[in-house]
Amino acid sequence: MAVSLDTVSHDSNPNVAALERSGAAMPPEKHLDMPTQSLRHWSASEERKPILPHPKLATWLARLFVFGGGLLLTAYGTWEMYQVVSVSRTTALQWVLVGLFTVNFSWIAVAFTSALLGFLALLRRPGHRGPLPSTLQHKTAIVMPVYNEQTDRTFAALEAIYESVHATGLGDSFDYFILSDTTNPDAWVAEERAFLALRERLGPGARFYYRHRQKNHHRKAGNIADFVSRWGGHYEHMLVLDADSLMTGECIVRLAAAMEADPDAGIIQSLPLIINRNTLFARLQQYAARVTGPVIAMGLAVWMGRDGNYWGHNAIIRTKAFAAHGGLPDLKGKPPFGGHILSHDFVEAALLRRAGWSVYMLADLQGSYEESPPSLIDLSARDRRWCQGNLQHMRVVTAKGLKLPTRQHFATGIMSYLASPFWLFQLIVGIALVLQTTYIRPEYFARDFRLYPIWPRFDPERALTLFAVTMGILLAPKLFGLILMLIRGSDRRASGGGIRLIISSTIEIILSALLAPILMLIQSGSVFQILLGRDTGWQPQRRDDGSIPFKDIVRRHRAHTVLGALAGLSAFMIATSLFLWMSPTIIGLLLAIPLSWLSGQLGAGLALKRFGLLRTPEEYQPPAIATRANELQARNIAFGFDDADSLKAIYEDATLREHHIEMLPPAPPRKRGIIETERALAEAKLVDAETIDDAVSWLHNKERMVVLHDRALIDMLVQLKPQPVEAQAAE
């Protein structure tokens, strides 16, 4: 950790002089005030006026096309569904079905019109962006927040980014920061070792810095806020990465140049493509993101205009604007709906936009990459946190002063998770209607003396037509992306040719359709858990390609399989037509365990890769920065930092120990009468220990973190013997 040079003196902290040397872990602090923003109070007079004129007609026309077209499609779908169920007198359950269908159909209708807009925009294919700028006027901090990550991967990525930026000739305009919130002691010391080794290789001119927070207050949002408030004054911009991000030097320089050219820009987001994936599930995501992703992203970029969104990484931010307006409030109450805001990026973009800063995406800017979860279970674990964060936005969407498009972004995020239980309810109501038609006798003589019985009837031909239209709208974005890949010769050839592209898209559609009902139940379960008050916490993501134990897969999906079997049996007993109608959902649920197992298998993904299927241009010809990052990762693995025990590393390496102590913050004053349990336990165990092996085997992770943060306890650790007395005597 770094020490505040503004708040401590040389007398109060003997390590200040060490931090002021050229090898300091962090530069001297230059503070920016970062006030907490209010969601209840806002005055229009607080909004800044744009410096440059920004025409809005095209953006509003695009919005009219997307939302007007979506509204017309929804009206058509609702009318057709009403016609399906209104053959005779419409029952209450049929009205419920129409209502649920309308909600679900409106969701895919807007997605369709937005994708159509993106498809039309991409048909024009933007030309070359021109040469890179020869100079940049301001400094940019490239920051990578990390939380219990593998250092071989993260430091390789950051070093590859540094080399790529340096190759542009504008490397002097960028500084690099590893901002650690790591709570695992072995990972923390591994980060320090990787940081020191990186600095030694590149020299002080590379300007790499490292800071570790003792308490990961407010998690990633708090990590970034701590950097901005303490060191943000040095930098006009900061480029935020994720632990799995890769960005080329050209992409970074163009983002910085775009920010300098637009004094009204607060956040400029790039579109990260997924790369480096090998398991079947990850390659499905990689392929879909490469084929369909640009269509969706371009559509969003066109109709959002300067009222865009921020995805939390691979974006450049105006530091002072972020400090002035990006301070997140805590929501009243306890998690999952109260406490600190999990999906902070949407809210930060909303607050900057409220203050008059523009937020937009450069969807056609190349050179921005990320990775994705390797299996369905890994995706669902991440999705659980995202679900809670998006549902939390129900308490933010009504905040005072937000722009209308911003509220729509929040509504879209909320609906992206509520869509699953709505779909589930629609299936349940459909089953109930068929059950009512098959087994419940009509009421011929009702109390109100109707001439006809109350009997739910349907128009099968119109229902089939509506089903076909719905599936067409649902699959259209994938078709748009495939068409673009086919008509672009370089992309088509790099993806294996037209036939392989068509086969790959077919595979992606089939597997996505089988996985969809599983994801529906997973997301529905997440929504129900959150509504019942269960907090998700924040666990580090698994990013490697290692498979999940089969018993864990069975435990995770056995309920889905049982539900699929019950649904299939019930549907078949009720009516063959119902069984056929539900067959995609039933098959997906019945195959939940083997599908989830197969999705995480490295062999399955590589087998398709050998046949040239699900191949992307970036897989055929990997970006130079990805190749370089993989080379550096292989080298870093050989260092063995991630496999070493933290206590032994500090014990055995005096130089590491010296640097570690230099990077610690000043110890807070201890209040008399207050005994910290973890510290007392750690000290007692060190007193009782005779050898370093005793300490390693006795101290748990929390106690290790206490030891590594305490200079006195580190001194006690160092005094331990390397081996038992008997072993020394034997030697």
UniProtKB/TrEMBL annotation:
Residues 239-462 form the Glycosyltransferase 2-like domain. It holds the Pfam family Glyco_trans_2_3. It is a multi-pass membrane protein. SUPFAM superfamilies: Nucleotide-diphospho-sugar transferases. It comes from Microvirga terrestris. Its main location: membrane. It is found in: Cell inner membrane. It comes from the Bacteria. The chain crosses the membrane at residues 57-76, 96-123, 422-442, 463-487, 499-522, 561-580, 586-608. This is Glucans biosynthesis glucosyltransferase H. The keyword Membrane applies. Belongs to the glycosyltransferase 2 family. OpgH subfamily. Keywords: Cell inner membrane, Cell membrane, Glycosyltransferase, Membrane, Transferase, Transmembrane, Transmembrane helix.
